[in-house]
């Protein structure tokens, strides 16, 4: 888990999936089709078991339980039950339960979880569900390009419910103190960073210490911001490209100029949050919930508009968090009815201030709960349309990305770049080799 926000845990379920996948036996094969039909659809009246993660404080899960237990499906006797699955060893928890036939019918979970369990034959694809939403307005309520973000060759593996975007933050009061402008591109970021350095402030705050993936995310985000990425359009690892080298040369320059704090290589999430809270961080890529993690400077920091890369590209990295259905269910119709009901009620998390995740639904994005939060509103409006996943420069997510995100190659790469001593091409070559090993 990134531990980088206090109330919007975003993609925190991603870490360690590679090791977990290796440690858990292959699941028994189940009948899976792109139409959401399953061999275990059945007609049981047992409750729909919904497993959720601790995406925020315990108040979030209290509300989740209340929403779940209020489910009353039309024409069916199935209710729904709610269980919180801690992030620690969560993949093993799911895998063991699914293998023994005691897993959930529906769950949230790690961003790449639906693809991993789809490969094991345990996911009920959501094609029929999304088709049904086209007639009730729910499909069109998704922000553009989001509804089918989990599309695979075999079907749609899950339906998105929130995003975890990497956005650029700035402490505008520190920028004013340094006599620097809010950056708009790489060149002005360098200029602002040099000005902040003179007052003892980091102009590119990040961290790659134990349990902190923001350093890795920042490196990938910088590549994506320059039109690069880790993969080709067909999913082949391709780290050693001109655009990636150019982006990492820029990061290396930031490190060598002292704009990146020398301690960033070992900063944990708490260390990084403390840098922001104590006004030692002036600019940096973080989650959309940084203002909750660094509450001491909440009035000083703001999400700034996406930077333009050297060639005019504007993009960012984001993670898609989804609700998935499983083939082991008392009734596939009940599972789909519950997911429909649940998506119709997730607005309550934002309405009550329980979560700061970036919404995927227009109705939530335009609600007062979001629009009154200027930073979340800006992240939603300006970053989501530009968002790309780990699959960039491709678009199709796949199970192997969990091994990339949870593996050592990307962490070691981030630590290498933050030290500013290694040639970018050499570092990217090592990264590509590590990714190739991770996904083979």
Automatic annotation (TrEMBL):
Pfam families: SBP_bac_1
Keyword Signal annotated: yes
Signal peptide residues on this chain, from the entry's feature table: 1-28
Database matches in SUPFAM superfamilies: Periplasmic binding protein-like II
InterPro entries tied to this protein: Bact_solute-bd_prot1, SBP, TAT_signal
PROSITE patterns registered for this protein in UniProt: PROKAR_LIPOPROTEIN, TAT
PANTHER family noted in UniProt: ABC TRANSPORTER SUBSTRATE-BINDING PROTEIN, ARABINOSE-BINDING PROTEIN-RELATED
Name the UniProt record assigns to this protein: Multiple sugar transport system substrate-binding protein
Organism of provenance: Microlunatus antarcticus
């Amino acid at each position: 888990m990134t531990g980088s926000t206090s109330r919007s845990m975003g993609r925190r379920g991603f870490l360690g999936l590679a090791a977990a996948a290796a440690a858990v036996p292959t699941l028994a094969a189940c009948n899976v089709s792109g139409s959401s039909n399953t061999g275990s659809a059945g007609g049981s009246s047992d409750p729909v078991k919904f497993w959720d993660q601790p995406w925020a404080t315990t108040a979030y899960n209290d509300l989740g339980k209340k929403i779940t237990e209020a489910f009353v499906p039309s024409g069916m006797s199935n209710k729904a039950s709610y269980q919180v699955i801690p992030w620690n060893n969560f993949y093993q928890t799911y895998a063991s339960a699914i293998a023994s036939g005691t897993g959930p019918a529906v769950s949230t979970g790690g961003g790449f979880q639906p693809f991993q369990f789809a490969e094991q034959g345990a996911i009920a694809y959501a094609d029929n569900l999304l088709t049904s939403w086209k007639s009730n307005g729910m499909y069109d309520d998704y922000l553009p390009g989001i509804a089918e973000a989990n599309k695979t060759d075999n079907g749609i593996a899950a339906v998105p419910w929130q995003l975890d975007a990497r956005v650029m933050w700035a402490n505008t009061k520190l920028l004013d103190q340094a006599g620097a402008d809010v950056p708009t591109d790489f060149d002005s970021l360098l200029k602002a960073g040099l000005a902040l350095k003179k007052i003892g402030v980091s102009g590119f705050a990040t961290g790659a210490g134990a349990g902190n993936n923001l350093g890795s995310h920042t490196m990938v985000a910088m590549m994506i911001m320059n039109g690069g990425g880790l993969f080709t359009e067909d999913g082949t690892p391709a780290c050693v490209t001109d655009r990636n080298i150019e982006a990492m040369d820029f990061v290396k320059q930031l490190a060598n100029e002292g704009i990146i704090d020398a301690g960033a290589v070992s900063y944990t999430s708490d260390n990084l949050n403390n840098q922001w809270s104590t006004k030692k961080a002036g600019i940096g890529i973080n989650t959309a919930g940084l203002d909750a993690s660094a509450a001491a400077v909440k009035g000083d920091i703001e999400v700034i508009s996406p930077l333009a890369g050297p060639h005019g590209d504007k993009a960012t990295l984001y993670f898609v968090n989804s609700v998935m259905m499983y083939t082991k269910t008392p009734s596939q119709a009940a599972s789909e009815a519950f997911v429909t009901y649940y998506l119709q009620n997730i607005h309550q998390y934002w309405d009550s201030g329980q979560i700061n995740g970036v919404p995927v639904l227009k109705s939530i994005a335009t609600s007062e709960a979001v629009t009154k939060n200027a930073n979340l509103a800006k992240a939603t409006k300006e970053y989501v349309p530009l968002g790309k996943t780990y699959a960039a420069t491709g678009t199709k997510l796949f199970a192997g990305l969990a091994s990339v995100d949870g593996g050592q190659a990307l962490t070691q790469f981030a630590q290498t770049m933050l030290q500013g001593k290694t040639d970018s091409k050499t570092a990217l070559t090592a990264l590509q080799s590590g990714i190739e090993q991770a996904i083979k």
